[in-house]
UniProtKB/TrEMBL annotation:
It comes from the Bacteria. Keywords: Membrane, Transmembrane, Transmembrane helix. One of its GO terms (cellular component) is plasma membrane. The chain crosses the membrane at residues 19-39, 54-73, 93-122, 128-150, 157-176, 205-225. This is ABC transporter permease.
Length: 238
């Protein structure tokens, strides 16, 4: 970790329009939860559906995309990454620091808002709020690593990330049984299912697979990103 790189990255993420993008989705989640509470009262089934479909299924991958690509992709696109690479800081340390910033942002905006929304709907009933917030935390960390890697690998990071989030995570990983075991969304739901005792929540992926898979994907993405940064020359060419 490098404190200077972290500080610069936080300033860039929180000082641009990305802060509004990061805040918009959590605000929408909490707003929907408040509206549902007002209209229909506490409903565990509704809470689980909202957490599955919007929090874990939609908000989390998009937050991971915004934070993961945002911490490094713009610098690569406009060439300012060269200034950072010219400093006596190892490339893996840069990758790790950028990842830590992205993961912390997803944790704050994703996991915290998930807990608030679920708690607002049904309080601590069946552990739904705790389960989904923990699932969002771990899932968000994995998303941050994957999307940061995408930001390092391609100059079209946002386009590639959106396709991945919508097609793989939203469609293939959500509805194709054989592909669910390779979906971060499903891994996050597996954690939520283990923590929560709700009868309305079930996961097709075992926790014994989901947790190691998250660790492997996160570490693998970080190592790959660090190695990829090594291949960037100070002229911006590979």
């Amino acid at each position: 970790m490098n404190a200077v790189v972290a500080d610069i990255t936080y300033r860039a993420m929180l000082g641009r329009k990305r802060i509004w993008l990061l805040a918009l989705l959590p605000a929408a989640l909490i707003g929907m939860a408040a509206l549902l509470r007002l209209i229909g009262g506490p409903d565990e089934h509704t809470a689980v559906i909202l957490m599955e479909k919007f929090s874990i299924g939609t908000m989390l991958p998009l937050l991971g995309l915004i934070a993961g690509t945002g911490v490094i992709a713009p610098e690569i696109e406009d060439g300012t990454i060269i200034h950072l690479l010219s400093k006596p800081i190892s490339r893996p340390v840069i990758a790790l620091t950028k990842f830590a910033v992205a993961a912390s942002l997803v944790a704050v905006f994703g996991a915290v808002s998930t807990f608030v929304a679920a708690f607002l709907l049904i309080r601590d009933e069946s552990g739904v709020a705790y389960g989904f917030s923990l699932g969002a935390l771990f899932g968000g960390v994995a998303y941050a690593a994957v999307f940061m890697l995408v930001g390092v690998l391609t100059r079209h990071a946002v386009t590639v990330g959106v396709i991945y989030a919508l097609v793989w995570e939203g469609l293939v990983g959500g509805y194709v049984p054989g592909a669910r075991s390779l979906s971060i969304q499903q891994w996050a739901q597996s954690i939520a299912d283990r923590i929560s005792s709700s009868p309305f929540l079930s996961s097709d992926v075992s926790l014994g697979f989901a947790v190691p898979a998250m660790i492997i994907v996160t570490v693998g993405a970080l190592v790959w990103a660090g190695q990829r940064l090594r291949s960037l020359s100070l002229t911006g060419d590979e």
